[in-house]
Design a protein that fits this description.
iron, single chain, 2 helices, alpha+beta, Cytochrome P450 CYP4/CYP19/CYP26 subfamily, 2 strands, Cyt_P450_CS, two-stranded antiparallel sheet
Length: 104
């Protein structure tokens, strides 16, 4: 995996930290990137040893966000509430407003 991520055939400028390469921003400099080669945690019997720890940390982070902030769907994202198919339908962005929670 490491060599695939550093190969210029798969990613343009692979040694640079460019998180915007993973966004759908329409940036032409990343159009030739082969993002399908990226396998989160690898796969199979001998996948990433830290996978369970990473999932636990993500759940903890999401829990802390939801504990400290209230999220409200904005009118332009009301369609999200009625979606039935989450796999094949292009949902578009989920616009939310964030409010700090007042706890006593």
């Amino acid at each position: 995996c490491y060599s695939a991520y550093l190969n210029t055939v798969n990613l343009s400028r692979p040694r640079e930290f460019l998180p915007e390469r993973w966004l759908d921003s329409g940036d032409a400099s990343f159009e030739s990137d082969r993002k399908e080669m990226f396998q989160l945690f690898s796969y199979g019997q001998r996948n990433c040893i830290g996978q369970n720890l990473a999932w636990l940390e993500m759940r903890l982070l999401l829990t802390k966000i939801l504990w400290h902030w209230d999220l409200e769907i904005l009118p332009e994202s009301e369609r999200w509430k009625t979606l039935k198919n989450y796999m094949t339908l292009g949902k578009g962005p989920l616009m939310v407003e964030v409010f700090p929670v007042e706890r006593e």
